[in-house]
Amino acid sequence: MTQTQRLEFMINYLLNESGQSDAVPVPDGDAERKRLLRSLMNIRPPRLIDIEFLRVQDAYLTEEVRAKGITDSDTLPVSPVDNRLVLWRGDITTLKTDAIVNAANRTLRGCFIPCHSCVDNIIHSVSGIQLRLACDELMTEQGCDESTGKAKITPAFNLPCSYVLHTVGPIVSGALTKKHCEQLADCYRSCLELASDQELKSIAFCCISTGEFHFPQEKAAEIAVQTVRDFLQTDNRLEKVIFNVFKQEDYDIYKRLLYSTAPTASTMPSREI
Please, what is the Cα angle at 219 between 214 and 224, to 5 degrees? Predict the structure, then answer.
């Protein structure tokens, strides 16, 4: 099959599965069809799917990732003050490393909003149907939503990394508090501990909670860098921690923190800030 044929096959399969084949017109252009496919994947509940669909999907997503270009984390320059820390601006779904971190919601089953711009939606869209199924299995076994600051691990399926670590960051709906900061530090610590326990050597963090969850970017970066540095002082199993950013503003913040030998400001505010 060509990529166009795979795209058409998956769209038709998902439309037929959901009973929408007569109600949803399939657009002509590839860009519009890709958006429709992603939307259908985003809204699909976690239920079993035909192995033939997965075979076609895996071939399609693997080629899509290859076409975007894969960045090997081994080629990324390290911080001049700590050779285990890396700052990288790019698409986390194109990064070849042991694990990437997904900023998940408390259901841990991905974002169900079609084509939403959050990292949770993007990671699930590139990984494929299997990621939601794996997360659903974990959460069904747990029997309740995921607590803020905890982390779980799944295979990465069609992503170029090997694993995805899912963590739920704090939601800041008013003033930033000490509890928010403690919960965010817990996210980073839980992921680091889980990665080390799984004998992983490299892990890439997205900017947890700074998007839809409204955690202030500067403070979030301070907490991230300080928590990672503190962990690495006592744990030698992890060889590389990558701070992945997408916006130039975040890149500038992290560069200042990672390229300086000065200690990071306290991660825990003594009062509401």
Answer: 100
